[in-house]
Structure formats: structure tokens, C-alpha cells
Amino acid sequence: MSDFAAEFLATVKARDPHQPEFHQAVQEVVESLVPVLERHPEYREARILERLVEQERIVQFRVPWMDDAGEIHVNRGMRVQFSSAIGPYKGGLRFHPSVNQSIIKFLGFEQTFKNSLTGLPMGGAKGGSDFDPKGKSDVEVMRFCQSFMSELHRHVGADTDVPAGDIGVGGREIGFLFGQYKKLANRFDGVLTGKGVNWGGSLIRPEATGYGCVYFAQEMLKTRGEELRGKRVVVSGSGNVAQYAADKCLQLGARVVTFSDSNGFVVDEDGVDAGKLDFVKKLKNVDRGRIQQYKDKYPRARFHAVDAAASSDSPDRAAANPLWQVACDIALPCATQNEINEADANQLVRGGCTCVAEGANMPTTLGGVRVFLQSKIFYAPGKASNAGGVATSGLEMSQNSMRLSWSREEVDRRLREIMVHIHDVCRTTAEEYGTPGNYVNGANIAGFSKVADAMLDQGLV
Length: 461
Ligand code: NDP
Prior knowledge:
2 domains, binds NADPH dihydro-nicotinamide-adenine-dinucleotide phosphate, Rossmann fold, alpha/beta, 5-stranded mixed β-sheet
């Protein structure tokens, strides 16, 4: 690490010492930006980076709700509005017991660069709660969402801040949140994305993150004259992103052999087909079951339980996660942060993996990223390869403003174009800064430059 990056990081850590995920996200970006700051003294003079690591605003609030047995619970809600330099704040809401300021800040920080890469006018934000929707009835989830929105509605709006889904927040939660917003604000507008198609949502939004991730992998492979057809793919997670990443892989003739959740993973050597994928979608989205049940339905598959030490999402996890020992050509981590550590990355490369495209946000630790970059395999950081979700949210916002709905084909075509554009920008920017093939540098530098120039134009605010 350069002296500048080390000193900068030390200041960020001293200010918020208990935020390891946020430090991790900042470190990755700052290391890429050293040559940019050398080339652009005006960014250093204007303290652009110092301003960018300090979110514009954090709102943290109490979320009281009552369960079906009449017991009262109190969760913590928050929204971190990171940067509005290039557009209204935009970023998902996560409902998961691990949610804290470190996690929401790392997500909001990354979101700022990701949104910039899409080419659409969206600032960066993230929010959520330590509420766990797992095991709750629909009515309990509704009560929670209503209580959450009772506070959040003061801070969001179609031209101010437009939240979407993330882990634990899918179509059901967005529906309850939107209903409460509409009641309180007395406005039917595009305050959330990921809405139902009958009430302002966009076709292809549920598919967009997973599809976009595979489009990005396809573009990387193309640069060496390769394609997805016939490739063996290991997917982690079994939620929204994992399902549609697998879906697009199947459409393109690849062989998907795994899914996972926080209890373990299934390996299906026969390959997942359309019928099996429909089973997973119903299992996770409707029945809200566990991936282990895949083996009950398809007994030729194997289930491997994974203990908490091996599946922990901490940046310091030492134990290897056995999922990444399943041999593959392509790995698509689509579950959560830090699911690939250095040992896992080494294992993937040794096992013959030549392409990693991140569907999740920051699923690879800093040590793991170094392994991928040194081994010269294709490695796409999430802020580039999973940007299709927020890009399609941007398309949903456009459709809401124009009060019209585009067809599936139209939205998918635009999504594909955006992913091709992000790939090209990352690639050419990496080359321009002397690190060809390094999509991490490409994404960080291209994402940063647009935001930095907007901040210079807008003065010291
Ligand atoms: P979902 O809630 O739909 O699915 C999350 C999946 O990841 C589930 O299978 C879940 O298993 C698994 N998972 C969560 N935490 C862990 C853990 N600690 N260890 C192992 N597995 C875990 O979320 P999404 O699919 O929407 O999000 C997945 C990732 O993609 C996240 O990193 C998110 O930030 C990122 N992302 C999502 C976008 C979107 O449009 N939805 C956009 C861009 C990025 P379990 O059921 O056991 O919790």
C-alpha cells in the first residue's frame, strides 16, 4: 500500500474504529485511486476523497412492532445517504440480523461508484434494519415494514432518495413499504424501485442483477474469444441474484452445479435445469424454505452443511468455505459479503476457475481479491458486475416519470447495453492507467472520476 493510501486509511479507521467492512471497502477504492490523485491535483486540493468517505447524512431510528402473539419487539432502522453529487440518493434496503452501520456504510460507499458506472443520474445510499424476516408471518413482516416506513418516509422521495431491495427485502417487503409510504405521503410516485409490475414496477427488475452479472461475465470471456456455453458454473446463494444468474447461465448453455444458503450448499452433478430452477424459485420465494430441501426433491444431488465458522461473512474469517472447493470454470458469488477469503480464492484458482463475476456486494476479502488479480483470471468486482440491478431501477424511475411501461425485450436490451458499456469503460480505464485487465482499478477509477468532477463543479457543499 502506498504511504498516501496507508495514511488516508489510518484517518478513516481512527474516526470510526469499529467498522471493519467500511474500512475494507474504502481500502480497495483508495488503493486504486492513488494514480488518479497524482494525475489530478485538483481532486486532492478539493479534498474530494476526504469528502466522499464521509456520508452526507445518516438517519438512525427505532422500529417498534408487535408479533402475532402480541409481544413487542424493537429493531433498529437506518438510512445512510452517501453522495448526491450526480443524482438523487439511490440504493437498497437490507433486512438481516447482521445489519449495522459498518455494513450499511460499506454498501452505501460502494453504491456511489456503482451508480456512477451505470451512466445514469443516481447518487449513492443504502439502508436497512437488523430485523430478520426469516420465520416471520406475512402479517408480522407487514407490521414491521409499516413501522419502518413510518419514520423513513420523512427522508425519501422520488427526487430525493429512492430505496430498493437487497438481502431480506424482495417484492413482498417493497409492497408493504410502498403501501405505507403512499398512505403517509398521500402521493403515488416512484419512491421505491422493485415495485410490482401492476403498480409502477419495471419488467426485468427482478431478473436484472443476476442477468447483468452474467452479461458482464460474457463480455469478459469474449475478450479471449470464449463463451459461456458448456462452462461449469458454481453459484453461491439461492436468493434473488443467485436465481437469475443461474437462469441466464442456463439460457446461454452453461452448466450450473450449485446453490447455497447460510446453512450449507447443494451440488447437482447432473446440472440444474429449468424445472429444477423453478423448484428453487418457489422454494425460496413462496415457501420460504431452505436449500437443503433441494436434495429431498432431487436425491441424486448432495447437500453439505457448512458451519458458522466457515460461512461467516466477517472480513477476518480464517476457515475455508467448502463450497469453493467444488471445481468450476466460472464462479458467481451471489450471497453476501466476504464469502470468498484468500484460502477460498486460492482454492478456486487451483481448481481451474478462470472467471469470477460478483453478483453480491464485496463477496471477496481484500486477500482474495489480490489472489484473483495476481493469477490474472477474469475478476469482476461487484460494483461493476452487479450494477445491472440498480441500472434497471434507474430504468424503472424513468418509466415512472414518463408514466409508461417498456416491454421485457426493451428493458432487457437496455440492461444488456448498460452492462456492455460498464465492461468497456472498466476495461479501457484500466488500460489508460497502465493496469490492463484489472477491472477493480477500472471500476473504481471510472466510477470515482464522474462523481469527483461533479463535486468540483458544485463547490464546497
Ligand atoms: P436474497 O435475500 O434474495 O438472498 C440472499 C441469499 O444469500 C440467500 O440465499 C441467503 O441465505 C444467502 N446468504 C445471506 N447471508 C448469508 C451468509 N452470511 N452466509 C451464507 N449465505 C448467506 O438477497 P439478494 O439475492 O437480493 O442479494 C444477494 C447479494 O447480492 C447481496 O450481497 C446483495 O447486496 C447483492 N445485490 C443485490 C441486488 C438486488 O438487486 N437484489 C443488487 C446488487 C447487489 P439465507 O436464506 O440462509 O439467509
